[in-house]
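Margin note: ligand = zinc ion.
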Amino acid sequence: MTVVQFLSIAALSVPTGGTAAQKDALLTFLGRASVRISTGAGAVLYIDPYAEGDYSEPADIILVTHGHGDHNRTDLPKRNPGCAVIAPSGAVDERSAIHLAEYSATTIAGVGISAVPAYNANHPRGSCVGYILEFGGIKLYHAADTSLIPEMAALHKLGIDYALLPCDGKYNMGPEEASKAAVELGARHVIPIHSSAEGLAGRNASLVKHPGVIVIEPGKTLRLDPPMNTRLKSAL
Ligand SMILES: [Zn+2]
Ligand SMILES: [Zn+2]
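Resulting structure:
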């Protein structure tokens, strides 16, 4: 076997997600806008806890996008000691919460967290934020409750891997507008959330058009992959 052959086989045989110390990053869709994320380095995050589901994995970070009752049930997840609660001002009733306004950022448990604008007629600007999370070479955007807004185009340059976009068409953009937002964002994958006016999920999720769309049923888990060049770098 030549050295070149050996290297290429070695690169291919590395499990997805990187070295033995680094596990796969996982996203579980709980319903509505609620998701749980486990990073490859072992941090557990919940975003917009509300939907009934499994909150037994203790949280290191709980993120809330705004104060509507279908987004801010911070009482649901179990918590690890030192768990950080992050929300825009006024969105949660916890004195220890860290308030992130749009265009501010922090890093907690190895996860980069940036708040970005999210607004529409039902969500006054400033009361609601989206989040861009960075972990293990992955950039994930949770858009919160919002319509297609001009600020989304500026996120294109970040190279978002996964964009979670609402598409209920009543309180937020509908599937057609979410499809346009996906183009503006230039995200590698789009995951429809908040896909019905009232329920945990609805048929609007299947109406979002994007080459990399991933429709996840409530309760199901998706493995999050970093972009190919990051995978190769960690394999070599
Ligand atoms: Zn809302
Ligand atoms: Zn909502």
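Residues 1-20 have pLDDT under 50 and may be disordered.
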